[in-house]
Amino acid sequence: MKKLHKDFLHVRKPWGSFSQYCKEKKVTVKILEVKAGESLSLQYHKLRDELWLPLDSGFVAEVDERIIHARIGEPIFVPRKSRHRLSAKKKARVLEIAFGKFDEKDIVRLEDKYGRKGTTKI
């Protein structure tokens, strides 16, 4: 049994394996679809942690100072207040699980190539 983070674990079974990402937690689950050559703003959240699970190849994740060339199914944990961004080399999807209080206004943008306003107030 391999621990990924807190409640997350990976368990091998005779028939294969399973990965558990949360247990009895209040979460918000989304699938983000990012167009080829596009990226999310460099941002952080005050009220929630996030777990990203790439469903397709082609993602580059930035979490604080780390650059991660994500593989399909490779979990990437983003603690609250961590600067983060996703970029897609080609059209790709990522499953996002948010832990904590979820509010779309809980986004502090540090850089945004689309010209959206900087900090979103909560």
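The record above closes out task 2.4. Task 2.5 opens with a second protein, given below.
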Amino acid sequence: MRFVVDSNVGKLARWLRIAGFDTLFIKDIDDNRLVRIALDQSRILLTKDTHILKRRVVASGRLRVVLIEDDEVKAQLRQVLTTLNLAGQLSPFSLCIECNETLVPREKKDVEQLVPPYVYKTKDKYMQCPKCRRIYWRGTHWERMSRELEKMAGSG
């Protein structure tokens, strides 16, 4: 499932990426361009903007839009997961939360100079974004976000 997220629900993009969903977020984009990207790339548009729902392309069924109802990001994610029945399709921590690129495994020896010494001593598995080069590992943030995802997906 692929998404494009309107700026009025921008924080949702980060959580969708954490959950493993290909999610575009472009700051300061006008509605016409947002709709065009969604159509061209076969993405579901997530927005709070009711005016987008009035467009012919939505009424005709060519563009799928989910109108986000809540202001709180966790409730927004829960709505998307429930509305689109995605709870069983989560692939947590497979995408960069900044770039939306698929993370690639890295050998421990290759990240020694890239992570804090304590992390290097205590963690063995690492992933890296090929675009921004950010390194990821299963630390306390990972554990906390995993629990949150489980709750939002209804499995925790």
